[in-house]
């Protein structure tokens, strides 16, 4: 069996795409806002017809989609791709991220090390391009830790019964709400998302074309997408939501309002949008599947338990490819100096401050020892070093250093990415 790992050429893209439908079984706990989350196409892909393959292959031939494949005896047996996106890191810099996506190995070639080799080639490619972070969202939690990836953002699914909703405080909306069509939503969302990702740690830049197809968001049994926008007193959009009202013959499932996307730049927009969505006539339940873990909504309710968390899931997994550049790219919540020993990736003196950091190789004794996996989880501030220390994954070498590391990495809001790749 002759194995060759290399980038997929234009002529081979169709063959690569034929491998992808074997990503069946991708966990879809419910009608997923997958089209919203990762683009306009439904996921997982169906076994494509030839003409569909040709169209997809033509669309994929871009400089931001970099597929690599394992060729076994000249034929593609598995593949994966890096998409070039940006992620917002603490301090607000939007840095290049090699986003691993569209990964599959044919069932007849699994567990022979093909993904391992493909991943090695893709991460080398990222390094050569100067990308010091790679990321992905994982189909299964057991696959990617071995390649140095680790969860850095998390998301909640929650639901609330409409009859349980009572707001604590009277609230006057100083702005206005409006239902708009998908064409207008297609104008609103790109601007709003840019404003959101400028300030939200963990948020990802949209893939090209993402906003062009809001009208084509598939109905997938959940009914059409509805677009709600909020404007401030000057008429500027400061929040928006996409929701559906799926019909069901089953009384237990009927009357659900499914929130597919929700962004608010201000507390007023946040409260106004939820006030409408949570008191929508003829609905019984509101479900939101991809929400930040520090959702403020519960604090608006007289009964905070009315908001029931039904799932927590890891979302963005990070792989730090260059420790020095990664640590110097973000800012810190305090001023301190710590020596970090990153197994297999050197020992680093981190001079951290609120306006940035210097990271230099050192022989000094380490304050904290960890691997690149733990560093990936800590990097955006969504996981605490003390939590990982109790799990035996971060080792404190000098007393108090893990608390000091937590104080440096802390973020006001939990990192979150509402869009993916
Ligand atoms: C996940 C997938 C791409 C792995 O490809 P593969 O070529 O079989 O992986 P490898 O042989 O290189 O595996 C490397 C290691 O990971 C392990 N591994 C691979 N897939 C695994 C899985 N799903 N669960 C647990 N371990 C897994 C292998 O046993 C091997 O372990 P080792 O290092 O101890 O030998 C393949 O199983 C697949 O196509 N699965 C269905 C689609 C999917 O889940 N895609 C990922 C989308 S995010």
Question: Which SSEs are present, and which pair or pack?
Answer:
Layout: E1 3-7, H1 13-19, H2 34-38, H3 50-60, E2 65-72, E3 75-88, E4 94-105, H4 114-128, E5 133-136, E6 150-151, E7 154-161, E8 176-180, H5 182-199, E9 226-231, E10 237-244, E11 256-264, H6 267-277, E12 285-291, E13 308-314, E14 317-320, H7 323-329, E15 336-342, E16 347-353, E17 356-361, E18 368-370, H8 372-378, H9 385-390, E19 395-396, H10 401-409
Parallel strand pairs: 4-5, 11-12, 15-18
Antiparallel strand pairs: 1-2, 2-3, 3-4, 5-14, 6-14, 7-12, 7-13, 8-9, 9-10, 10-11, 15-16, 16-17, 18-19
Helix pairs in contact: 1-3
Bound molecules: coenzyme A (COA).
Specify the number of helices.
10
Total count of domains = 3
Q: What compounds are bound to the protein?
A: coenzyme A
Q: How is the largest sheet built, in terms of strand order?
A: 1-2-3-4-5-14-6
The helical percent reads 10-25%
Order of helices and strands: EHHHEEEHEEEEHEEEHEEEHEEEEHHEH
Shape: globular
Structural class by SSE content: alpha+beta
Mean pLDDT: 90
**Main sheet attributes: strand count, strand direction, barrel closure:** 7 strands, mixed
